[in-house]
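cron nightly-structures :: item 1 of 1
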Amino acid sequence: MYSNNIDMRISPASLTKLMTGLILYESYELFDELTVSLPSSYIYEGKVAYLKNGNTLSTEQLLEFLLVYSANDAAHIAALQVSDTVEDFVLLMNKRAKQLGMNNTNFSNPEGLDDNDHYTTLNDLLTLGSTSCEHRATPWSPAPTTGGPTSRR
């Protein structure tokens, strides 16, 4: 296969949300109900869904906002669902990247906003994309009607 500059440092931009989504997917079941919780200091920037505090949505719905609509607020919400702080989530993103062999990647936020410390390579993005594709969605079925959330945490 032809390759050119596959190890050159680039900005992952919104492809960052693949890692954010992967960690959310690995942490919760698709039908788990999540409550939107953004800090009062959160500033909506870039493409957003304007999700409001107190709203509930399923993991699957949050993944849709994150991966289909590329909503930055969905990435921030996902980070705070998995970790106590965005900073802790970024540490988790970098740990997961290293586990996958993405040795030329460093994340500094869950949204993909530009930052000098936020970089990857085409080769590492291929690894992330391949890993994400391994998690195939199961055919749709109605949400369970009994029992509570079944967190994978």
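cron nightly-structures :: done
The chain has five helices and two strands.
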